[in-house]
Amino acid sequence: MKAAIAALVLAGGMNAHAAVPQTPEAWRQAAVQDIDEAVRITLANHPGAHDPANPHFRTNLDNARQQGLVLAARVDSAAGYRAALQRFNVTIGDGHAGLYADLDPATLPVQRWPGFVTAWRGTGLYVVAAEDGGPPAGARVESCDGKLLEDLIRQNVFAFDGQVDEAGHWWSRARKVFIDYGNPFVAVPRRCRFLVGGKTVEQDLAWQPKSERMDRWLAESYNGQTLDVGLSEPRKGLFWAAMPTFMPDDKQRDAYRAMVRAVETGRQRFLDAAAVVIDLRQNQGGSSVWSRTFAEALWGKDRVQRRLVARSARTEVWWRASQGNADHLAGLVEQLTREGQVESLAWAKEKSAGLHAALARGDTWYVEKDGTPGASDADLPTDPPAFTRPVYVIVPGQCASACLDALDTFTRFSNTKLIGAPSSSDSTYMEVRWQKVASGLALVVIPNKMYVNRPRANGQGYQPAIYVNDPVWSVDVFRKVVEDDLARQRH
Question: What would the DSSP string read from start to end of 336-389?
C-alpha cells in the first residue's frame, strides 16, 4: 500500500501523569523546552533531515525554532504555550512536521464566538448561520476594525494555523477568524462590515462563550452534514458513495467492505447508471486502501492497478531508518493483526521487515523501487466492459494525505470530474506517526517515509472543474450541481 496509514498508531491523548505547569514561568519554560525537543526528535527521525532534494530542510526547521521561541519567551499560560507551538508549525509550512499541543481542555480558555459562523467560498467569507440580531445568512464579510478581511485572516488565523498560500486552507480554515481560541497574541475583531443584498452594513460583535449551537453550526458549515460511510441511491441510477474518513473504525470498515461488494455484485447497475458521486466531505486522510478498493470495484481491479503502476513508473519510496520509525511499524503490525485488518497487514509486515533490516545495516534509508519503468496503462482485450458513466468527486478544502491519494486514483479515468473546493496539498513526506515530548504536553508529528519522483509534486493539489460556492454544502446543493451538469451534457 503506497499511501499513508496516517495516525493508525497514535501516541494517545494527554498523559494523565503529565505535570501541568502551575505558573507563568513554568508554561514559558515548557514552551521553550518542548520546541527544542521537537527539533531534536525531528532531526533524528524525519526524512527531510537527510533529503537530498530538500537541502534547506534543516535551515527551515531552525527558522521555525527561532520563530517559535520568540513567542515562547512571552508565554504565560496554556493558551500562549499552544500559540507558540502553532507559530513553530506554520513556519515549517508542512502539515507532516511540527509539534501539536495535547492539553487538558480545562487548562485552556473557553472558546468564544460572536453569535454567527462563516464559511469561505470562492474568494470571500460568508455568514452561514447566525443567532437573532446577527448578520443574515449569506452576508459577505468585507472588513473588520478598518482592516480588509483577508488581511485580518492572515494575521489572526494563518499566522498560527495552516498554510496561507494553499487555496484549500482558505476554504477549510479562514472561518476560524470568528472563533476566539484565547490566543494571547491576537486581538479578536470588534466591529465588522457586511455586504447584504448589495448594501453595506456595520455591526458590533458580541463575543460570548461557545454553545452547543455554535458547535453544531460549525460542524455543518465545515463541509455540510456528515454522512455515514456507505452507498445510497437518491434516485434511480444516481449512486452516492459517502467516504467521510479513511481512518475507519470497525463499523466503518464493515461499511466500506459492504459498499465494495455492492458495486462488484451489482456491476451492471453501475454500468447503466446516470452517475456515481463519491462524497469526500469531512475526509482528512488515513489509509488509501479504502479508496483504491472502491475504485477497483468500479473501474476494474486490473485497470486501476495498471494505471497506478504506469503513473508511478519512476517513483521510489525512501523510508527513514531510525529506531523510532522501526518501532512504530512493528507496533502497526501488532495493531493490524489484533484488529484483523487484512487489507493492510501484509503491506505493514513488508515495510516493517525492510525498515528493520536497513536499521540493522546502519543505512539511512530503506528504499523501495516503487515504480515499474515502461509500464503501460492501456486497456487489454481481456478486460471486462469499461465503466464509462460520469463520476463526480466532491472535494473539500482540507483534503490531503490519503484523501489526495484517492484523487490521484479517481482522476486516472477521464469520466471523473472534481466538484467543490480546491484541495489541500502534501509535501513528499508521508506515513505519519506521533511521539510525545517528555513533558507530556505535546506531540511531535513525524513522517516515516518520503516519495522520490512522485508524479504529484511537492505542494501540488487539485482544482475542481466545478466550484461549489454555496455557503451551505448540503447533499441537496451538490445533487443539484450534479443534475445540472448531467443535463448540460445531454444537450
Answer: HHHHT-HHHHHHHHHHHHHHHHHHHHT-SEEEE----TT------TTSPPP--S
Cell numbers for 78, please give them.
Answer: 496554556
Taking the C-alpha atoms of residue 3 and residue 348, their distance in angstroms, rounded to an integer, is 12
Tell me the C-alpha distance between 100 and 86, whole Å: 7
What is the rounded distance in angstroms from the CA atom of residue 426 to the CA atom of residue 460?
Answer: 7
Q: How far is CA 115 from the centre of its chain?
A: 27
Over the stretch 375-423, which tens digit does the pLDDT of each residue have? Answer: 777 888 888 889 999 999 999 999 998 999 999 999 999 999 999 999 9
Q: For 157-203, how does the pLDDT look when each residue is reduced to its tens digit (9 = 90+)?
A: 999 999 999 999 999 999 999 999 999 999 999 999 999 989 999 99
150 closest CA partner among 115, 120, 187: 120
Query: Which residue, among 336, 344, 222, 234, has the nearest Cα to 284 in the 3D structure?
Result: 222
Q: How far is CA 109 from CA 82, 88, 112, 182, in A?
A: 11, 21, 9, 6
What are the cell numbers at 351?
A: 515495510
What is the spatial distance between Cα 267 and Cα 134, in angstroms, rounded to a whole number?
A: 50
**Cell 466492459 identifies what position?**
385
Domains of the chain: 24-107 (no CATH), 112-209 (2.30.42.10), 230-490 (3.90.226.10)
pTM for the full predicted model: 0.87
What whole-number distance in Å separates Cα of residue 183 and Cα of residue 226?
Answer: 29
Q: In the structure, what pLDDT confidence band is assigned to residue 31 with cuts at 50, 70 and 90?
A: very high
Rounded to whole angstroms, the Cα distance separating 174 from 168 reads 10
- In this prediction, residue 14 carries a pLDDT of 46
Rounded Cα–Cα distance for residues 467 and 338 (Å): 42
Distance between CA atoms of residues 387 and 369, nearest Å = 31
Euclidean distance between CA atoms 145 and 153, whole angstroms: 13
Contacts of residue 487, Cβ cutoff 8 Å, sequence gap at least 6: none
Give the pLDDT mean for 287-293.
95
In this prediction, residue 371 carries a pLDDT of: 60
